[in-house]
UniProtKB/TrEMBL annotation:
It comes from Clostridium saccharoperbutylacetonicum N1-4(HMT). One of its GO terms (cellular component) is plasma membrane. The keyword Nucleus does not apply. One of its GO terms (molecular function) is metal ion binding. It comes from the Bacteria. This is Aldehyde dehydrogenase, iron-sulfur subunit. The keyword Disulfide bond does not apply.
């Protein structure tokens, strides 16, 4: 696994990028952080955040021209957040915050700042914090005199003096009544390591243009306009700050231009959607300024801008409390540092690999693909727990064995223009529908329609078993090639997806497209206009033709379609994806419940597993084939969901029946101890289902115990306790023999190998 490439992917996540209120502020005040703290009533914490970015805080905060408010995302929904009024509230109620500062070693470099206005003071303070000795030359008798004159209705002279004294306490030397003439400027340039001209009158005063000045004397940096009340106060701060960065880099002999693209105001890359979010109307102060309570209420209007589209959509990311960046760090930790041992295995095996996160992500980060690659890496290092996907892989192995696999040309022919591949799950739940579909296809399509029963290998792909998946696909390809490379018609969306991406020169067609193009059976029964919420299988996320075909079929059957919030390319998983149903069954149930909350209407599905999982959680769900081949609308959605044992038996019986009915062949193969009679009550059956124990496993344990007598007998109750290891799982069964059958008392399994004496 290329971990460096993985870490580069996390850089594409935009969620931790600042919102527009921050980026459009020339000095990047953390508005989001301030409103968060004010909303909690923490005015002193909010003040600390404000002071980090805003020098001369108690003055600038009162006269800031707040360009940020024009970019607030709530501007057209209740009004922009009153950021400036909140800044004033933060100063009023939080300015006594105790701010600790570490002493900074002084450098042997001196900087001169000409002009004690906003930009000059900002530049001086910033350079002082970097350890420079700074001298300010101001022609008036006080710093910020121009600002005071321009804003004296908002500013108190005492406040100005308090702020000036703070600057003096920093060790900054202030020379008042010190007008810098061209001659004096020459002396200053010679004496200091760097010079900032922060007065707006420099052009007239020094009678030289900026380009010439900077060409002749590199150490001189020029500021902007003189702020007199009509210009941007906060931009003046930004100008001084930018000058401080330039002077520092000049003195340190570093690039003056590198990595400065986000200096000053710039456009935010953060994408925020608030369509479904309620935004309260703007709070108006009853007095000239916010009270504490009013400030808190206004701050609570802030939606705390973030992208998190993937987290909002994906219950797995919500459950794990991870966004892509954090998830990728977790994977990196798991792979690079602790090499996959224990930590994060359950998290990694709980991803549905459904692709929803990538579909909604503005930059297309698909954690499903990353997780799949992670599982492959863990398998290759033998760090993937065998128990996680064991049952699914064994079920796949069974389905691709002689118990189910079947490859045939259409009866009576030696050529197939098409081949029907129903998939393992449809065959397990709806074996009768598979037969009806095959008859329909042979009737509607000319040129011969063959039949291929098997599994596409999806469990291996989901589980990270790359070689097993490749071998499975190679076998399927070879079998289709032997049929003459016919068009493959799939009923399963996962098969369609795997074949489309894995067998490039073979045409793949969805069964639903065939129905849509060729028409429905002549004896189809129309519905009564009922509204059904359509659930798209997540493996059809990019298949618009399948989406449209399903909807056209439903409409032609006289049903109305409701589109859930997450539909088509943004559909949610049913809970089976990534074989999470076997790796983390409890979470799988939560995923199913999350999906069915989206509509009060009955569901329409076209994946057998989707239909089964929804039905198991009590959601009335129709499979599209229920509508096509069912005869009674009131009953067709109540078809019983088969157990794991019944699913396997249904596949076996389907092959046996189709061989006999279509080709006149008998299937002689039998499972070990298949004829053994067992009696299981509902409680034990449910336990077996939860613990992934099949009836065939039970029979094999009992049959072997009865044959070898290698078991424990309890004379007090007549129960027998037997065990048998089947491949890598040991199954235990407690039973009692009653005449020619066996009553099952208990059953469980584990991976411990018990050796007899």
């Amino acid at each position: 696994m290329d971990l460096d490439k993985l870490l580069s992917i996390q850089d594409r996540c935009i969620n931790d990028n600042p919102p527009a209120c921050n980026t459009q502020c020339p000095i990047h005040v953390d508005v989001k952080g301030i409103t968060l703290e004010v909303g909690k009533g923490n005015f002193e914490e909010a003040y600390k955040i404000l002071k980090k970015r805003m020098p001369f805080t108690n003055i600038i905060g009162l006269i800031c021209d707040h360009p940020c408010e024009d970019f607030c995302i709530t501007k057209n929904l209740g009004g922009a957040i009153s950021i400036h009024e909140l800044e004033k509230a933060v100063i009023a109620y939080g300015k006594n915050a105790k701010i600790k500062k570490l002493p900074i070693p002084k450098l042997s470099k001196k900087i001169a700042v000409i002009g004690g206005g906003i930009s000059g003071v900002t530049c001086a303070c910033d350079l002082n914090e970097k350890g420079y000795s700074v001298d300010i030359f101001e022609k008036e008798n006080m710093l910020a005199n121009t600002i005071f004159e321009a804003y004296k209705e908002k500013l108190d002279l005492k406040l100005i003096q308090e702020e000036i004294s703070k600057i003096e306490n920093l060790g900054i030397e202030i020379e008042l009544n010190s007008e810098v003439t061209p001659e004096k400027l020459t002396d200053i340039i010679a004496e200091y390591d760097g010079v900032y001209i922060g007065t707006g009158e420099w052009k007239e005063k020094f009678d030289i243009d900026e380009a010439t000045l900077q060409t002749q004397i590199e150490k001189v940096f020029i500021g902007g306009k003189l702020v007199t009340g009509n210009e941007s106060v906060i931009q003046a701060v930004a100008t001084g700050r930018s000058a401080a960065v330039s002077l520092d880099r000049f003195v340190q002999k570093k690039s003056l231009t590198a990595s400065r693209g986000k200096e000053g105001a710039y456009e935010s890359v953060l994408e925020v959607e608030i369509n479904d979010q309620e935004v309260l109307p703007r709070i108006l102060p009853k007095d000239i300024a916010f009270s504490r309570e009013e400030a808190i209420d206004e701050a609570l209007r802030c939606i705390q801008c973030e992208c998190h589209k993937c987290v909002k959509a994906c219950i797995h990311l919500q459950k794990e409390k991870l966004d892509p960046k954090a998830y990728i760090r977790t994977i990196n930790q798991n792979e690079r540092i602790i090499l996959g041992d224990h930590y994060a295995n359950k998290t990694i095996n709980s991803c549905l690999e459904c692709g929803l996160c990538g579909a909604v992500c503005p930059t297309g980060i698909d954690m499903g693909e990353i997780i799949k690659e992670t599982r492959r890496s863990m398998v290759s290092k033998e760090k993937m727990p065998q128990s996680a996907h064991d049952f699914a892989l064994k079920d796949m192995e069974y389905t691709n064995s002689s118990y189910f696999e079947l490859v045939k040309h259409e009866p009576g022919t030696n050529n197939s223009s098409y081949v029907f591949y129903p998939g393992c799950q449809l065959s397990a739940t709806y074996p009768d529908y598979v037969i009806k579909v095959y008859k329909y296809l042979m009737e509607k399509i000319q040129g011969g329609v063959g039949l291929y029963l098997g599994c596409c290998g999806a469990p291996a792909d989901f589980a990270g078993q790359e070689e097993q998946f490749k071998n499975s696909m190679a076998k399927i390809y070879a079998n289709i090639e032997n049929l003459g490379k016919p068009v493959v018609i799939t009923a399963c969306s996962t098969c369609f997806n795997n074949f489309t991406t894995g067998m490039g020169d073979i045409e793949i067609k969805s069964l639903w497209e065939v129905f849509n193009e060729n028409g429905l059976p002549s004896d189809v029964k129309l519905g009564d206009g009922k509204i059904l919420a359509v659930h798209d299988a997540c493996t059809t996320r990019k298949e618009k033709n399948i989406h449209e075909s399903i909807r056209n079929i439903a409409k032609s059957l006289n049903y109305k379609i409701e589109e859930p919030k997450y539909t088509k390319e943004t559909t949610k998983c049913c809970g089976f994806g990534g074989v999470v149903y076997f790796a983390n069954k409890e979470f799988s149930k939560e995923v199913t419940e999350d999906r069915i909350k989206e509509s009060d209407n009955d569901f329409l599905a076209y994946c057998a597993m989707c239909r089964d999982l929804f039905t198991l959680k009590g959601k009335k769900t129709y499979h599209i084939l229920d509508l096509i081949f069912g005869n009674d609308e009131e009953n067709i959605s109540d078809i019983k969901v088969p157990t794991l044992s019944e699913r396997r038996a249904n596949r076996f019986k389907l092959k046996k029946k189709m061989l006999k009915d279509f080709w006149g062949e008998l299937m002689e193969i039998k499972d070990e101890y298949e004829d053994l009679k067992i009696v299981i009550d509902d409680n034990i059956r449910n336990k077996m289902e939860d613990e992934l124990i099949l009836e065939s496993d039970i029979k094999k344990v009992i049959g072997e115990a009865e044959k070898t007598k290698n078991s424990f007998f309890n004379p007090e109750n007549g129960h027998v306790l037997a065990w048998r290891r089947l491949v890598n799982v040991t199954f235990w069964v407690e039973y009692q023999k009653v005449e020619d059958s066996f009553n099952i008392i208990n059953a469980y399994s584990h991976r411990m190998h018990v050796t007899g004496v």
